[in-house]
Structures are given as structure tokens and as C-alpha cells.
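The instructor's notes for this session suggest beginning with a concrete chain rather than abstract definitions. Hand out the sequence below and ask the class to guess, before any prediction is shown, which regions might be ordered.
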Amino acid sequence: LYGTGLDGSTAGIVGLGQVGRAIARRLQGFGCRRLLGVDPAAGLPGEDGARGLPIERATLDGALAACDYLFLAAPLTARSQRMIDG
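After discussion, reveal the predicted structure:
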């Protein structure tokens, strides 16, 4: 096998809408140890955009520092356009 697998890794998901939640459901089957969720549309980190999924809420900076893989599922808007590169 080539490359690395997702087993035991930490994955970050930016955007917890329908697409982000679908990614989270699929990542569970790949053995990710931790799922970190960043939802710019939800506002406060305590709000539940995960809807029953085992996602730990995180800030963008916290997710970038902790995750092995980052999945971008946020819609492209003026607010999110420079989210990663500042």
C-alpha cells in the first residue's frame, strides 16, 4: 500500500452543513481517532452543528494545529474566501 491511511488520525472539517456532516459520517468508517469541526456559519463554538455526530467543536486555529487532514466543506463567500491563507 502507498501513502498513509486515515486510521488513528485526527481530521478537521471546516463547515458542518450537509456536505461537512456527510464527510464526517464517511470518515468514521475509515477509523479516524478524532474529528474536529469548525463551523463559521454557526457562530459560537458551543452551538451544535454536528447533529449527533462525534465531532469535537474547535476554532480554525485549533483545528489547524491539531489535525492531520483538513477537509474544506464551507461555501465560498466573501467571509470564507481568505479563511486559510489570511
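Then share the key points. DSSP finds two helices and four strands in the chain. The mean pLDDT is 84.
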